[in-house]
């Protein structure tokens, strides 16, 4: 009996250690729309924007808001709290939580198709809106197109080989680079952007039929299993995994 108790205590301790040891590499947010569902990976390189977006998503700040500005072959923009229950035809885009986020613009994070960027006004510090964001659709560019952009719009900046490869294959919005903070990218459901981008809009680029948003911050286990699936591995759903998860927080 004493030996059995020791084994049970050892198993309990082992499960606790395993439960708390495994953490996802990134934070993930599921974006649920009228045109489908996609999952966003938030970059660790932009911690201020990551943590702010996680806080808002966790607190259901975005639920019921709209993609209020949609421009095909460019982007779809949301995150304005004033869009929740807004009357048809109302011009939107000025709402927010009452604060901005310092810019976290980095050379290696750019506007390829499927990334999320932070909207902002024309403030000189390029500080981001506290809640408004856009998902890039963009379009495919030729190398010559990118050469012209460098000469006419990029203030002496040169696109890297990584940027050029992305913009000439999957596409994006290169003219936004170095001017807005990019803080994540879709890991699945990128076709949702295309579906929303093709809806009819009014003179203010607002969809004539509301495109509502709901967000879900993935739990620790959901994020761990997503990362396994992205690596071609099976999700962990076995007995010991479930027992271990009983002793761990869903947050991470």
Automatic annotation (TrEMBL):
Name assigned to this protein: Peptidyl-prolyl cis-trans isomerase
Free-text function comment from the UniProt entry: PPIases accelerate the folding of proteins. It catalyzes the cis-trans isomerization of proline imidic peptide bonds in oligopeptides.
PANTHER family: PEPTIDYL-PROLYL CIS-TRANS ISOMERASE-RELATED (PTHR45625), PEPTIDYLPROLYL ISOMERASE DOMAIN AND WD REPEAT-CONTAINING PROTEIN 1 (PTHR45625:SF4)
UniProt entry tagged with the keyword Ribosomal protein: no
Position of the signal peptide: 1-21
Any GO BP: protein folding
Alphabetic keyword roster: Isomerase, Rotamase, Signal
Entry GO MF terms: peptidyl-prolyl cis-trans isomerase activity
CDD domains, per the entry: cyclophilin
Superkingdom, natural source: Bacteria
Gene3D superfamilies (UniProt xref): Cyclophilin-like
Catalytic activity, as annotated: [protein]-peptidylproline (omega=180) = [protein]-peptidylproline (omega=0)
Domain PPIase cyclophilin-type: from-to ranges: 36-214
Family note: Belongs to the cyclophilin-type PPIase family.
InterPro entries from the UniProt entry: Cyclophilin-like_dom_sf, Cyclophilin-type_PPIase_CS, Cyclophilin-type_PPIase_dom, Cyclophilin_A-like
EC number(s) on file: 5.2.1.8
Keyword ATP-binding assigned: no
């Amino acid at each position: 009996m004493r030996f059995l108790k020791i084994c049970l205590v050892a198993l309990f301790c082992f499960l606790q250690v395993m439960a708390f040891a495994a953490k996802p590499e990134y934070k993930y947010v599921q974006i649920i729309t009228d045109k489908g569902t996609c999952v966003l990976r938030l970059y660790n390189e932009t911690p201020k924007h990551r943590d702010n977006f996680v806080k808002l998503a966790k607190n259901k700040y975005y639920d019921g808001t709209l993609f209020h500005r949609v421009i095909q072959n460019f982007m779809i923009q949301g995150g304005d709290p004033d869009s929740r229950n807004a009357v048809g035809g109302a011009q939107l885009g000025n709402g927010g939580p009452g604060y901005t986020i310092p810019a976290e613009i980095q050379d290696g994070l750019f506007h390829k198709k499927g990334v999320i960027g932070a909207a902002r006004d024309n403030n000189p510090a390029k500080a981001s809106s506290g809640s408004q964001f856009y998902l890039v659709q963009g379009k495919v560019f030729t190398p010559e197109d990118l050469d012209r952009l460098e000469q006419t719009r990029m203030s002496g900046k040169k696109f890297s080989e990584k940027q050029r490869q992305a913009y000439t294959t999957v596409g994006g919005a290169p003219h936004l680079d170095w001017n807005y903070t990019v803080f994540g990218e879709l890991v699945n459901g990128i076709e949702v952007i295309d579906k929303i981008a093709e809806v009819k809009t009014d003179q203010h680029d607002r969809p004539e039929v509301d495109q509502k948003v709901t967000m879900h911050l993935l739990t620790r286990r959901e994020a761990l299993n997503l990362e396994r699936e992205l690596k071609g591995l099976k999700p962990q759903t076995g007995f010991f995994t479930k027992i271990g998860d009983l002793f761990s927080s869903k947050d991470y």
